[in-house]
Write a structure and sequence with these properties.
Length: 53
């Protein structure tokens, strides 16, 4: 899914986020994003289990 995103692209995204949100908000946003990804993966796994079994 994210295989086409390399280090330069990630750095650009980080700099843009830093400019938009400021350094104080980045950890909070990162945690929220991480929780969202974790929950998404968990739900996707459960759906796969329901389909296959």
């Amino acid at each position: 899914m994210f295989s086409s995103i390399g280090v330069p692209e990630l750095l650009i995204i980080l700099v843009i986020a830093l400019v938009i949100f400021g350094p104080a908000k980045l950890p909070e946003i990162g945690r929220a994003f991480g929780k969202t990804i974790k929950e998404f993966k968990k739900e996707a796994t459960e759906i796969q289990k329901e389909i296959s079994g």
